[in-house]
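Data availability (excerpt). The following record was deposited with the supplementary files.
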Amino acid sequence: MSAGAWRHSMCLKCFRKRWPRRKFWGWQLPEKLRSWETCCFCSKKHKDGIHMKKDPQSKELKCTIQPEILPE
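Predicted structure:
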């Protein structure tokens, strides 16, 4: 799996929870390129433009959780 598939959307609130003193502006997309996304860490909608590398197998991510298939 390539590292390109490891990019995950992160809202500013989750970024601050993880790194309280780290500058976020270096991680953000320019405002004109941002669109509404779902945070892969808390599943909330945001338009913060922050994307972080994280292994898709990480239990911290909520975007990779697949719903269980119920038997018919």
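Summary of structural features: Residues 6-19+36-63 form one domain.
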